[in-house]
Design a protein that fits this description.
The protein contains 4 helices and 15 strands. With 257 residues, it is α+β, with helices and mostly antiparallel strands. The strands form 5 sheets. Strands 1, 2, 4 and 5 form a 4-stranded antiparallel beta sheet that branches. Strands 3-12-11 form a 3-stranded antiparallel beta sheet, with no helix packed on it. It has a 3-stranded antiparallel beta sheet with strand order 6-10-13, covered by helices on one side. The protein starts with 9 loop residues before the first helix and ends in a 9-residue tail after the last strand. Bound molecules: 2-amino-4-trifluoromethylsulfanyl-butyric acid and cobalt (II) ion (2 copies). 2-amino-4-trifluoromethylsulfanyl-butyric acid (MF3) binds at residues 61, 64-65, 67, 72, 81, 98, 100, 109, 205, 236.
Length: 257
């Protein structure tokens, strides 16, 4: 395990932006297909074909440590790493789609929540809290801030909304590697941990539960669910630390936030 943080040059960050924008374009492309009756396996096929045939990129999850599909699809009480399959989407579901592409050797990793039909008020709320948790983290990013400051801000926001933050899974450094150092925890204490420097590239990807924070791994050894079966939501961006702030590499130009 390589624990060194790989700082990226400006040219390398531009190469990562290409991968990041491509990953984001997959989420935009798949959006219109997320509706009742579609299976998560069909969404995987749509994304796979777009990534390979149109983007000429590589879907990073496929065969990564044995993962069998090209995207992760995490429904309702699934926290993360859901495997696409025969499950048909139904009205009221909330779905996370997590896309990672490799372009020219560089990774771009992003995920968002989708509403299937018309979800309940509480289902929409957990999606909004998780989104706001990600934005709270991103707003903190600049040189001199620590990863503990970021985790603390995310945790304080989410718990203040009477939601809980998953601790077993975290954000990560990213670049030529899918999961590089450092680990980016979504909880923590101010002033602790790695101090941010320009050229660092990592993801923030808080998983926020309506109930308790605890998780369980299903026997397929990938799918992570909430232990109390409460709803869970997650949003993810890949970003770079700049001289005076943050550059969100997976945010499309026409996206509001
Ligand atoms: N994209 C996930 C992340 O945000 C990782 C998925 S690993 C896989 O880090 F093998 F499940 F694809
Ligand atoms: Co990630
Ligand atoms: Co991801």
């Amino acid at each position: 395990m390589d624990n060194r943080i790989h700082l990226k040059t400006p040219d390398e960050i531009e190469a990562m932006r290409v991968a990041g924008q491509q990953a984001a374009s997959v989420l935009r492309l798949v959006r219109e297909h997320v509706k009742p009756g579609v299976t998560t396996g069909e969404l995987d096929r749509i994304c796979h074909e777009y990534i390979v045939d149109e983007l000429k990129a590589v879907p990073a999850p496929l065969n990564y440590r044995g993962f069998p599909k090209s995207i992760c699809t995490s429904l309702n009480h699934v926290v993360c790493h859901g495997i696409p399959g025969d499950r048909k989407l139904k009205d009221g579901d909330i779905l996370n789609i997590d896309v990672t592409v490799i372009q020219d050797g560089w990774h771009g990793d992003t995920s968002k929540m989708f509403y299937v039909g018309d979800p309940s008020v509480k289902a929409r709320r957990i999606c909004e809290v998780a989104h706001r948790a990600l934005l709270t983290g991103i707003e903190m990013v600049r040189p001199g801030v620590t990863l503990g400051d970021i985790g603390h801000a995310i945790q304080t926001y989410a718990e203040g909304q009477r939601c809980s933050v998953v601790r077993e899974y975290c954000g990560h450094g990213i670049g030529r590697g899918f999961h590089e150092a450092p680990q980016v925890l979504h909880y923590g204490r101010p002033g602790e941990g790695v101090v941010l420097e320009p050229g660092m590239t990592f993801t923030i990807e808080p998983m926020v539960n309506l109930g308790k924070r605890h998780t369980r791994l299903l026997p397929d050894e990938w799918t992570v669910i909430t232990r109390d079966r409460s709803l869970s939501a997650q949003w993810e961006h890949t970003m770079a630390v700049t001289a005076d702030g943050v550059d969100v590499l997976t945010r499309l130009p026409d996206d509001e936030l």
